[in-house]
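Exercise 7. Predict the joint structure of the components listed below.
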Amino acid sequence: LSDDDLVRRFVSDGLSDAVDVLLRRHQDHVFGLAYRILGNRADALDAAQEVFVGVFRKAASFRHQAAFTTWLYRLTVNACNDHARRRSRLPQPSEAVDAPSADDIGRADDRLAIAGAMRRLPLEQRTAVIMRDLLGLSYEEIAEATDTAVGTVKSRISRGRAALAGGLGEPGGEPGRGPVKEPGRATARLTRKKP
Amino acid sequence: MTPHADTELLSAYLDGEVPGAERAGLEQHLASCADCSARKSALEGVMLSVRELPPVTTTEAERLSIRRAALDAAGSGASVRGLKRGRAWRVFAATAAVAAVFAGIVTIVAVRGAGPKVSTTASAPAPSVSPAVPNLANDADVRSYARSRPGVSTFLEQTQGAAAVPQAPLPLPASTQGPSVFGQLNPSTGQTPPATGQTKSAPSSDRALAPQGSATAPPTLGSCTRDTVPAGSALLEATPVTYQGTLAWVIAYGAPSGSTSTLDRVAVEVRSQSSCSVLDQATIP
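Solution:
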């Protein structure tokens, strides 16, 4: 059964297997996306819960012309934005991120560096880069999920990547101006040859 | 000489989002411009690094928390107002506590009213267990109680070895037919769970107070297990307990833990006897 069919079945039958199948299919993606955007598991879990509460509350109003996953990602992005906004209002420093998890300490040395650099990106740029490079969504899909124009998505991804590369600068040799603190080191770590 | 490419164009080019004519011009320029070509490679390196970030693993506990919130939202329906987004299960916990007080009172009334022969243990399926309905307070209690049940322990023994085979669903335990303080637990009635569109506290207390044979009968264990046990899983045990003062079912079922269809873990749900709502969940790996 497609996601669409499952949503229809939930709307007509109420609590049923459809709920569990949808959860099994998507909870890991939603949690993963929220974790990469928010940077810590507690917030990601809160956001993922909100997403699925939203899915089942709003299932009846889901327009089936849009892809279910796009709707799901849209709910996820909104939940993450809410969380980030709430967190920024708190008196604590906004760098509330988990210590690097076992996931991030791996074979490659630059894995830690890239995960850290990602967390320093502005929220919109981080979200766009993750949706493009980790989820493989098209600009169109990202625009729909983040409620922006395709041109904005293009620019967010480009600025995010430039910052991750240590501030590329524009043609003409202007020095880096990205928000990454140690451009030299980051560039050395993150810039790699083609495979 | 063609103009240099800005970062945005290079980035879009790498994503395959630059249309044909423009792309051809850009490729021509890249072939001859070392500066643009180097910036393109740097962007490409970043893309590859991001792509190689390992997938985030969701723990079983996190999955259960998500499921609990989702089920609560799914069960309460879109028309329930006043439950704040994402806080639903916390509100529900408070509601359950209130309902527990009602249920406690009802238990006493029902037991007294029915005479000395009826006790809350009348519906316990296994005569060998302690005569009192077990009183559970948290996940750990639920787990150790579930482990002690014969259906669950047999299942665990069978699956502890290498060759775990899918279990055929077991018949509902005798408790579904047995008398209970509610007297409404016959699965053959095909009673459905409470209608949506009401707040949680009202139906549970109303139903608990309803006399036997009333139109507002609580859901049967039969319909409750239908809601609980997902397709492809096998019901192992469903026994009555008190959970934090509320009369509840402990429903244990064998479920697959990964993508395989092999049933290799025990999922346990504690559901209110009066409304079938989820009070707690646990797994036994």
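Discussion. The radius of gyration of chain A is 18 Å.
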